[in-house]
Amino acid sequence: MSDFILKRLPLGMFWPTFDPFLFCAFHNDKYPEGDGDMGPAASLVGRMLGQDFVGMDGWRMYHGKKIPGFPAHPHRGFETVTIVNKGLVDHADSMGASGRYGEGDTQWMTAGEGIQHSEMFPLLNEEGNNPLELFQIWLNLPSKNKMVPPHFTMLWDEDTPIVKALDGNGHETSIKVVAGTLNDVAAAPCPPNSWAVESESDSHVAIWIIDLPEQGQWTLPAAVSGLNRSLYFFEGEQVELNGVKGSINEAFVLKSDTSVVIKNLGKLARFLMLQGRPIGEHVEQHGPFVMNTKAELQQAFNDYQMTKFGGWPWPRHDQVHDKSAERFAKYADAQVK
């Protein structure tokens, strides 16, 4: 192991994460054409509907039975950051908010004191395939913010900054800045109670998607010491990090105060970078709830059983929106963007 790479870990669907991050799932599904009702025009025989994570034929229904995705389920005590590179997601929640987003958009949702939401993947193209590629990242909340009111923010693709960098041979690297700052370019604002902004000057939270062209080279700048910084190599062939070879489907846990020259040795190489100062608090997690003590965790289950976090105001738990709807966000206060 080199002095700047602290760990090298293999990647599957669920990626290793470190405080302040709790979880990262990479969904990469090659869905077939839609059946006219936003489900797949393909046989579902042989799939464990309701729990389909196998990846038969290159795609999954997840918890959906007719439409792929995740029907209504609760969360408390953390945030979800859902970055959709390809495809669409239909959102609905217990606040009465809804939306359709994708093709580069990010939804940043603070679960706080408790919310139910559904995340369905409508297959709108009935003439061809419906590829879906997304990251869902769970970012912890510090104890003082675990019970804030739920909230979500849409970071539309058009409003998400992309930093371009040319190397000495004219190859251009693109870095999408979902959170944090790169070369004085700051990401769009995320929810107000997030660890990413509550102590922004100290938390150093960064979420970047890095696209390195064939034969391209780019230097990941050094940050301050004491951060957890992970670089996930999810598309491409082979790269060098400060001269150390790495292959696709690897995670590199890096020293945060050391710059790293990334050289692409093959076709387009793509990375997700997660970085942040640890919150440093004890975590008690069970399923969709993340608290600091076992008593708080039990209270979360009790509260959900009693209140359903506001109930479910939608006609179906796998709520999808009209097929003709464009990308939109309707907030709990009825504002539509």
Automatic annotation (TrEMBL):
InterPro entries: Pirin, Pirin_C_dom, Pirin_N_dom, RmlC-like_jellyroll, RmlC_Cupin_sf
Residue span, Pirin N-terminal domain: 60-139
A Pfam family of this chain: Pirin
Chain ranges of the Pirin C-terminal domain: 210-310
Protein name as catalogued: Pirin family protein
Family: Belongs to the pirin family.
Superkingdom to which the source organism belongs: Bacteria
